[in-house]
């Protein structure tokens, strides 16, 4: 059915057998209860979006990272080890997630995508909760455009207007030096990183966390109506700006460029990019590789920004506990896409590589029956699964247009049967992740495929050698092509 359909379906697998179960009860037979049933009272939702957050988190295996609060959340809930975005750029990724609709060559194409324009008629996640009696609040960056689906919020979306740069003199000097070297680069911004002498609340994300805490206090005093509180943090998006104390968590001497600081062997040119987003900042050359010293500072800044955001998430978790809201609040933490930190010679996202497509997802649902804290799910999940998962956990209807699948069964039993593939796309590339492989193909405007990539994660987890043309690797690429064509989004 088209995503423009406005009809609804039941949110749970178990509810499809409700009439049959009722009949069995009438004749005196016992009925096994469904897992994760509708809660007795509607649960609240704390919906945390983090821009450009790749799984650079201790609980995702990066033990050297200082992320105690995200790790604490993982201990409370379910961590999805292999969760994949639909499009590795912010506006498109968010629009797809919030609408529950897959991207296509003409839908959710780039960072400027709007959910309400690309998928008109699709009831967005925030709107669905509002329609079902929730107070819906948007703080920080949730949709890329604050005006997108504004009717789905109970009040106008809010964003901080603070300037995160704290040393104007140093920044302007760096910009002037850049213009001396590259006089044609008149639109250059300030530096791509800064360790600031300032408190958390003097930054946009610190102010966003404080504002969210204020709402949590208000909600605790008026608990009759459930809330859907969306909190969108900007960091670790460029530029990497955070207080000095978060930089001090990491020793620059322990940081180096990745081993694969260059394009994969055999990768087609269309799969690579020039890291254009990073090239906008002072001190970054307009072409060619970023020098090792600068690259290490960038990586350091990214790590510090992740820890800064981790601290803000900790403030939210503490407030939930203090206000007595934690036991009846679903918490969702997601990064809108991955990020290259020099892998494949690239920075930013904007590719069909694992580094761009893989992003963290953690869901804590303390009120859901059968969901154990600290659960880890290794099955392949897609970000369009988030919408139906939340409606099921909250016990509200799910719009029929949703193209994802509720992951509640996985939250209850990580070994439950599940999908075998995660599919996404970027620009002319469509990509599919299986348990072992990532396969991508690139097509021209007529739809004819002119380039392919295949990586075997069993022997090449960093995707360094494209084996799409090597039949002796034992995989019939046509199998993945067929699965990709069956599952990818299409233009209407």
Short overview:
The chain has 492 residues and is α/β, with parallel strands linked by helices. Helices cover 27% and strands 19% of the residues.
Kindly describe this structure.
The protein has one domain: Alkaline Phosphatase, subunit A. The protein is 27% helix and 19% strand. The chain is built from 13 helices and 19 strands. It has helices spanning 18-26, 68-76, 90-99, 115-118, 125-131, 168-181, 204-221, 244-247, 292-322, 354-357, 386-394, 408-412, 477-487, and strands at 8-9, 44-50, 78-84, 135-140, 189-191, 193-196, 227-233, 240-243, 281-282, 329-335, 340-341, 347-348, 361-364, 375-382, 398-399, 422-426, 429-433, 437-443, 449-456. The model is unreliable at 1-34 (pLDDT under 50).
Question: Topology, please?
Answer:
Elements: E1 8-9, H1 18-26, E2 44-50, H2 68-76, E3 78-84, H3 90-99, H4 115-118, H5 125-131, E4 135-140, H6 168-181, E5 189-191, E6 193-196, H7 204-221, E7 227-233, E8 240-243, H8 244-247, E9 281-282, H9 292-322, E10 329-335, E11 340-341, E12 347-348, H10 354-357, E13 361-364, E14 375-382, H11 386-394, E15 398-399, H12 408-412, E16 422-426, E17 429-433, E18 437-443, E19 449-456, H13 477-487
Parallel strand pairs: 2-7, 2-10, 3-14, 4-7, 5-9, 6-8
Antiparallel strand pairs: 1-15, 3-13, 10-13, 11-12, 16-17, 17-18, 18-19
